[in-house]
Specification:
The protein is mostly helical and 244 residues long. The chain has one domain (3-240). Helices cover 74% and strands 0% of the residues. It has 10 helices and no strands. The radius of gyration is 18 Å and the shape is globular. The two termini are 28 Å apart. Residues 20-244 form the ABC transmembrane type-2 domain. Its main location: membrane.
Length: 244
C-alpha cells in the first residue's frame, strides 16, 4: 500500500473513532431531518412552500449542514491541531511529506461529507418518501461546486489559524453564517428577501441545491460564485499554509 493510501486508512480510523466527528459529522443532519419529519404537520403540503411539504423543502438545508459540519468545523480543527502539536513539522523530516497528510485529510473529510449527504437523501426517501433530486445533473454540479467551495474555505481557516482553538473560533463563525443563509436556523421563506437572495451565493449554495432537487436547472451566477470561491480560497490557502 502507498504512503498516501496508508495515511487515508489511518485518518479514516481516527475519524470514525472520534465520537464528535462520527456523531455530529455523519449522523446529525439525518437525525435532524428525521426528527422534523416526525412532526405530522411538517409532512403536510404548505402554501408557503408552493404546495411542498416542509420536510421536502428542508432536505437541501440538511445537505448544507452535512457539508458545513465537516468542511468548516472538523477539517480546520484537525489540521490546526496537527500543526500545533508539531505533527506537520515532524513529518517534514520523514520521507512522507506532510502534503500527503493534507491530501489524506481532504479525502477522508470529503468522503465523510458525501456519505452524510447520501445518508440524508436515502433516509428521507425511505422514511418519509422525500423525492430524490429531480434534476440529477444540476444537483451533482451544484453539490460538487458547493462542497469544493466549502472545503476551500475550511482549508483557508486551517492555513491562517495558529492553534486548534483559534481554528475552532473562526470556523464556528463561518459555519453559523453558512447555516443561517442555508436555511438551517430559519427556513429561507421566512428570511427577508434580500437575505435569502444573498444566501444563494453563500457556499454551498442552498438555492442551487433546492432548484435542482425540485427539477429546475440551477442558475449560472451562484454556480460561478461557488467555483470562484473554491479557486480563490484554495489558492490563497495553498500559498499561505504554514507547517509550523
Amino acid at each position: 500500500m502507498s504512503a498516501l493510501g496508508k495515511l487515508i486508512q489511518i485518518e479514516s480510523r481516527l475519524f470514525l473513532r472520534d465520537p464528535m466527528s462520527f456523531t455530529v459529522g455523519l449522523l446529525l443532519p439525518t437525525v435532524v431531518l428525521l426528527g422534523l419529519g416526525a412532526v405530522p404537520m411538517l409532512r403536510e403540503p404548505s402554501e408557503d412552500m408552493g404546495g411542498q411539504r416542509f420536510i421536502d423543502y428542508f432536505a437541501p438545508s440538511t445537505i448544507v449542514m452535512a457539508v458545513g459540519v465537516i468542511g468548516l468545523t472538523n477539517l480546520p480543527a484537525v489540521l490546526a491541531a496537527y500543526r500545533e502539536q508539531g505533527v506537520l513539522r515532524r513529518m517534514r523530516t520523514t520521507p512522507v511529506h506532510p502534503v500527503k497528510l493534507l491530501l489524506a485529510q481532504l479525502v477522508v473529510n470529503i468522503g465523510a461529507a458525501l456519505a452524510s449527504a447520501l445518508l440524508v437523501v436515502v433516509a428521507g426517501k425511505l422514511v418519509f418518501d422525500v423525492p430524490l433530486p429531480q434534476h440529477p445533473l444540476g444537483f451533482a454540479i451544484a453539490f460538487v461546486l458547493g462542497i469544493t467551495a466549502v472545503f476551500a474555505l475550511g482549508m483557508l481557516v486551517a492555513a491562517v489559524a495558529p492553534t486548534a482553538r483559534s481554528a475552532s473560533g473562526l470556523s464556528t463563525v463561518l459555519f453559523m453564517t453558512a447555516m443561517f443563509f442555508g436555511g438551517v436556523y430559519l427556513p429561507r421563506f421566512m428570511l427577508p428577501d434580500a437575505v435569502a437572495r444573498a444566501g444563494d451565493f453563500v457556499p454551498p449554495g442552498v438555492q442551487s441545491l433546492l432548484d435542482a432537487w425540485t427539477g429546475t436547472a440551477p442558475a449560472v451566477a451562484p454556480l460561478l460564485v461557488m467555483a470562484a470561491t473554491a479557486v480563490v480560497a484554495g489558492a490563497v490557502a495553498a500559498r499561505i499554509f504554514k507547517w509550523e
